[in-house]
Please model this.
Amino acid sequence: MISPLAYVDPSAKLADDVKVHPFAYIDADVEIGPGCEIMPNASIMRGTRMGANNKIYQGAVIGADPQDFRWKGQQTYCYIGDNNRIREQCIINRGIDSDGGTRIGSGCFIMAESHIGHDSAIADNCVLGNGVKVAGNVKIGNCTILSSNVIINENSAVGECTLIKGGCRISNNVPPFTIMAHNPARYYGVNNVIMQKCGYTDTNVDDVAKAYRHIYQCNISVFNALSRIESDIDPSKVRNIITDFIRQHNLRIAGDTFNDEE
Model:
């Protein structure tokens, strides 16, 4: 199931049923799991560890050398989960340290000409639209949608079940369950459609909406908004996800909030 016109390094480890089309390139120190398909002119570079049932389309480069001056040629890794679709001309860089790595979860759909930088982590069931640019050390939560041409700057984090609309530039942390739009990015509401698809209830959606009214619509600091959330909303999974995310990121969130330091 490997075309004689493809190059597969003898040291690469491929499951028996992997399909490798003509002119694909499989580097040394690559592992590819069962059910994967590597389309023509795709390149799977050294240090890539790929799970099952992934399809890599024409011209994509998986596990490319990291674009960071801190990388000095050491062995580093790129981990791809299961059941992903990585479309034409995508580039996913490896990590810059041997004990880290770039990680793509399972069930993701990464559209054409997207780029994912070194040591970023994309969780499960995410969608990246055409031309999305994710810089290094970015964390993207489960079931997140980045519409076409979104730019996520280095060291940013995006919470689960988030929608970032096309063309947004994100240089801060986007809290979970939100919709962000425009430039500079602004809070645009609760991503209730995806929340419901992920099993959250109407009560959960209402609690999220209440929480973000305190954060984005009351003209108070994020610190004070968290206090109001914890006094106004009963303890719940979604409340804790929101407050934990904001505290873990030092109260620095996107969406045009009031801040004591401004």
Observations:
- The helical segments are 192-197, 202-216, 222-232, 237-248.
- The mean pLDDT is 95.
- The two ends are 60 Å apart (CA to CA).
